[in-house]
Amino acid sequence: MGKQRCLNCYVIKDTQYFSLDRRYCDGCVRGTTVNCTRCGSPFESTTPPKNTICQKCLNQINSINTKIIKKNPVNKIKTSGVKDTLMNEVIELVLELEIEEIPGFEDINFTDISVFQLRNLSKDDLSLLLDNLYEIQDAYSMEDIEEEDIEEVETDFIDALDIIRKYKKLLDVKMEKNKPVEKWRLNIPKYIKVKVKNWRSESIHSIYEKSKVLMTTSTGQNKEEIMDFVCDLSEIIFEEPVKEKIPLEDKGRVEDWVLSHIEMTILPQLEAIDRLENNHGILIFDDSCTNDLTQALIEEVHERDGRHCFICHDRNNLKLHQIITYESGKTYHKDNLVTLCNSCKNAIITRSVNKAFTQCLRNFYENY
């Protein structure tokens, strides 16, 4: 009869006192139902709370690691419990997301990932790598969401502005997701990433100031890398800002831009009609709406839209367009108004996304 050490209490016992997975003794086993963090299925846990992976997924991971160890028996290493857990989590996410490369970790071949490729990374580097993978996972999840889940209206009243703002929020999220990552952020040294928790979202000015502080407290190679990075940031911060333009040769990005802005302008009306038919409701606007299209309101909308067409950027023959029309009369609000050129407006009033896309795309290439 063999003996082994429990990975939770670290006591050496006979193997007969261990659970089926042969990693934790019976004294550390708990029996509650949890959801597997890998596949999402419920299961009765047979491990301490820190492990929430079902036996099926655990077998798959162990099978992968076993194949790697058999393939490279000479390189088999022993790792601490924390580091081993981090490496296994990295491998799980890489396999799930099918990642090929990650900025800052170009020396690792993620297409054929193994524990041996991660053995020389410190715990801090492994934690940073795991954070990057979770952020990529969140981005992938966002791509699968076509519409934000909104609680259905229980009453007969349907607020038109709520519908408009929903599509505006979706447009903002999509544009931010498709926005290229700033080059300077890709060059942030690993030492700064470890010390500055929110380095992915903080502004360039905030990163610049915090990097200068770290430069005074660091030494050796870390200090040299931070000094070079601070110099690069200073050139970016103090030079004249350049407004980013969509490259016309990037056909996919151009088409995505045009289609997204068309949907923002057409889909609220279609949803309002659909909800009215299904709920037999009454379309309302909130108290901030006005029946008068004042010059001040016109100027506010034009200024917000950059004094050009919301879709194609044409600056000529501009008109206001009501996103959701109100049968009981003209009800104006800045969120329900958008600036369109005459050509795009004629395409939008067809209420057909496909028909509008052809004309508006042509207008974009002519006017952007």
Can you tell me about this structure?
The protein is mostly helical and 368 residues long. Among the domains are: 1-57, no CATH class; 166-175 and 246-367, no CATH class; 185-238. 49% of the residues lie in helices and 8% in strands. It contains 13 helices and eight strands. It has helices at 55-71, 81-97, 115-118, 123-143, 160-178, 183-186, 190-195, 204-217, 220-238, 251-279, 295-304, 342-348, 353-367, and strands at residues 3-5, 12-14, 33-35, 42-44, 157-159, 282-284, 318-322, 337-341. It has a two-stranded antiparallel ribbon with strand order 1-2. It has a two-stranded antiparallel sheet with strand order 3-4. Strands 5-6 form a two-stranded parallel ribbon. β1 (3-5) and β2 form a beta hairpin. It starts with a strand and ends with a helix. The model is unreliable at 46-50, 64-80 and 145-154 (pLDDT under 50).
Map the helices and strands.
Blueprint: E1 3-5, E2 12-14, E3 33-35, E4 42-44, H1 55-71, H2 81-97, H3 115-118, H4 123-143, E5 157-159, H5 160-178, H6 183-186, H7 190-195, H8 204-217, H9 220-238, H10 251-279, E6 282-284, H11 295-304, E7 318-322, E8 337-341, H12 342-348, H13 353-367
Parallel strand pairs: 5-6
Antiparallel strand pairs: 1-2, 3-4, 7-8
Helix pairs in contact: 2-4, 5-10, 8-9, 10-13, 12-13
